[in-house]
UniProtKB/TrEMBL annotation:
Subcellular location: Membrane
Alphabetically ordered keywords of this record: Membrane, Transmembrane, Transmembrane helix
Protein name per UniProt: Anion permease
Family: Belongs to the SLC13A/DASS transporter (TC 2.A.47) family. DIT1 subfamily.
InterPro entries: CitT-rel, SLC13A/DASS
UniProt xrefs under Pfam families: Na_sulph_symp
Length: 476
């Protein structure tokens, strides 16, 4: 019972029952309302940490099938529908990308890339921050778990660099020397990199799926094209702003390039498996960018990359079986997508959109757009999971915005970017947050205050620069 919080489970069930037995509002089918009860309880259970996310989602499948809310009166069709998420190609895109990410870690190529950038840029604390951030951006297209990318590759190197300059977690008086600045900056850069690519973090393909349900087609390339410019501006601006708001005491880190060079020397020349991993990486990028012209979609590309890594023994089938994070993601991703998609099919999302539209119907889209963005961004304070936030609010807010006249692609992409960058607000707001906060370099007050400041900067960049850039691209 160590994984189960009995009190939180009881609250979750109570809320589910309350919503279930409230009469369905006018315009909502009874089974749609009952599915919403299960969906809302699942999201609440995830927020309250009543049980692991996979456990909550398995319970949701069980209750969805048992109550037959997605196919009333047809038990066989109900269980088929409850399991339909596992057949969605978007689910397998993100799952397979996790397996590919294992190749970067297993071969050491991810660490090599990070040390190369540190050797080039690491002569100052600001340069070191940019070097670590650039490594994250380069790895982001093929490593969709920003927790694996930030916590498994960037964080250990960042911490090692801080300690090498006598900024030690166990000595609070040394934190501001270098560790505090690098911790926050590395976390922020991780989120910026996550926003730039469809495969940058696990929740992005979920946004793509929900947008598709509303007839908005987002491809790997259209996401990258829209995210590149605001992401690049944020990449250059955020370290500079943080350097002013939360400066490190140590400005020069002349020994960092030497340390990185020593690490590279210890790693030796690039191995055959690293070359093969690099080849697979470039094949993946090429097909994600140009595959549309060849009728090769992003999921097919991911299968091609994984097959190449398996055939060349860069990865083994044991590696695939043991990649717990991927299988965990496939499970909860499939269930949340199934419920959210079913809510849309049963008319609940449309009803909710019309309800909100009636409340804000007097607004022009230019006023409604920032209102929706701000609501979505700052509501993240109550979410301990970016995925839960996307599942709970993305489709509904997108439907509302489109209903009041906001250009569909503009809103779909902007809400998608926010699914990464709203993680700056809290120490629990995104997957890598507990890893970086757990270093002890930044206290809670500083984390939240700097997060709010940087969050406002990112909102200005993405809404201002990003909005104008999408206009140039012809997205609206």
């Amino acid at each position: 019972m160590k994984e189960i919080n009995i009190k939180a489970v009881a609250i979750t069930f109570a809320i589910a029952l309350i919503i279930w037995f409230i009469p369905a509002p006018e315009g909502v089918a009874e089974n749609a309302w009952h599915l919403f009860a299960i969906f809302a309880a699942t999201i609440l259970g995830i927020i309250l940490k009543a049980a692991p996310m996979g456990t909550m989602c398995m319970m949701a499948i069980g209750f969805t099938a048992l109550t037959q809310v997605v196919a009333p009166g047809d038990a066989g069709k109900s269980i088929t529908k409850a399991l339909s998420g596992f057949g969605d190609k978007v689910i397998w895109l993100i799952g397979i990308s996790f397996f590919i990410a294992r190749g970067f870690i297993k071969t050491g190529l991810g660490n090599r890339i990070a040390f190369l950038f540190i050797r080039i840029f690491g002569r100052s604390s600001l340069g070191l921050a940019y070097g670590l951030g650039l490594a994250d951006v380069c790895l982001a297209p093929a490593i969709p778990s920003n927790t694996a990318r930030g916590g498994g590759i960037i964080y250990p190197i960042m911490k090692s660099m801080a300690i090498s300059f006598d900024s030690v977690p166990d000595k609070p008086e040394t934190h501001r020397k270098l560790g505090s600045f690098l911790t926050l900056n590395s976390y922020y850069m991780n989120l910026i990199a996550s926003s730039m690519f469809l495969t940058g973090t696990a929740s992005n393909p979920m946004c793509q799926k929900f947008a598709a349900n509303l007839g908005i087609n987002i491809t790997w390339m259209s996401w990258a094209a829209a995210g590149f410019v605001p992401g690049l501006v944020a990449f250059f601006v955020v370290p500079l702003v943080l350097y002013k708001l939360y400066p490190p005491e140590l400005k020069k880190t002349g020994d960092a390039p030497k340390m990185a060079a020593q690490k590279l020397k210890e790693m030796g020349p690039i191995s055959k498996n690293e070359w093969l991993m690099l080849l697979a990486f470039f094949i993946l990028l090429a097909l994600w960018i140009f595959g549309g012209a060849l009728s090769i979609d992003a999921t097919t590309t991911a299968f091609i990359g994984l097959t190449l890594l398996l055939l060349t023994s860069v990865l083994t089938w044991e590696d695939v079986k043991s990649e717990k994070g991927a299988w965990d993601t496939i499970v909860w991703f499939a269930v949340l997508v199934m419920m959210a998609s079913s809510l849309n099919e049963l008319g609940f999302i449309g009803w909710f959109s019309d309800l909100i539209k009636a409340k804000i119907g007097g607004m022009t889209w230019t006023v409604a757009f920032p209102v929706i963005i701000l609501v979505y961004f700052f509501s993240h304070y109550i979410f301990a999971s970016a995925t839960a936030h996307v599942a709970a609010m993305y489709a509904a807010l997108l439907g509302v915005g489109v209903a009041v006249g906001i250009p569909p692609m503009l809103l779909a992409m902007m809400l998608g970017f926010l699914g990464s960058i709203y993680g700056v607000l809290t120490h629990y707001g995104h997957g890598p947050a507990p890893v970086f906060f757990g270093s002890g370099y930044v206290d809670l007050k500083a984390w939240w205050l700097r997060g709010l400041e940087i969050g406002i900067v990112l909102l200005i960049i993405y809404m201002g620069v990003g909005g104008l850039w999408m206009k140039v691209l012809g997205y609206y």
